Amino acid sequence: MTHPIYRVRCFEIVSAYTLRIQFDDDAVQIIDFQPILAGEMYGPLRNLEVFNQVQIDSEAGTLVWPNGADFDPATLHDWPAHERAFRELASRWEPVEA
Predict the structure, then answer these.
(1) What's the Cα-to-Cα distance from 39 to each of 12, 81, 89, 98, rounded to whole Å?
(2) How far apart are the first and last CA of the chain?
(3) Could you tell me the pTM of the whole model?
(4) In this predicted model, what pLDDT tens digit does every residue of 40-80 receive, in sequence order?
(5) Burial group, residue 73, by CB count within 10 angstroms (0-12, 13-18, 19+)
(6) How many C-alpha atoms does 79 have within 13 Å on its Cβ side?
(7) Contact (CB, 8 A) for 54 and 68
(8) What domains are there in the chain, each with its CATH number?
């Protein structure tokens, strides 16, 4: 299965755990990540100091964090279609100390 390739052009931290993300096709998503910050990969991002270290990976064109957490840019681009599934998954992930 193939899907369009999107790249994150820029982002802005708009509030705690919430980013405004602009893509190379000029689409914009405002995503509150807090509800999915659980489990081994995303749980450490509950520490706001770690979450705020988000950067754009210039090679992959997506958001990355120092602990290796990232998202497929197509998932971020189409977040409303994926948010529910991520929330359901996060509810099953083991809690991790931030």
Answers:
(1) 25, 21, 9, 10
(2) 35
(3) 0.89
(4) 999 999 999 999 999 999 999 999 999 999 999 999 999 99
(5) buried
(6) 19
(7) no
(8) 8-92 (3.30.2020)
